[in-house]
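Revision sheet: structure tokens.
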Amino acid sequence: GVDIERIRDVPQMSEIARRHFTPDEFQQIATSSGIKRQEAFFASWTRREAVAKALGCGLGGDVEALSTIPPIQLQAPAGYVAALAHLGPVGTLTERAWSPYSKQALL
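Predicted:
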């Protein structure tokens, strides 16, 4: 499973983190502020969403069960975070930058 999210303000961030994240993840978010808080929230969110997609379940499931697959935090464009989760061993992972305005995209 793969997830990418734009870092932004979420009005109910603390409540969402309390309900869906581990106590350690919640504590990191609760003790951060500003952009660092948003980055911590969306880093946790994308990891959980990637695992949920890999397992074929939703985020409403068991928080600890979603911790059984270690996700990979991917590089993402500025202002975004991304994660990948895979059920089997990951061999070689190649990340590519893509732009709708690149010459290759037009070919």
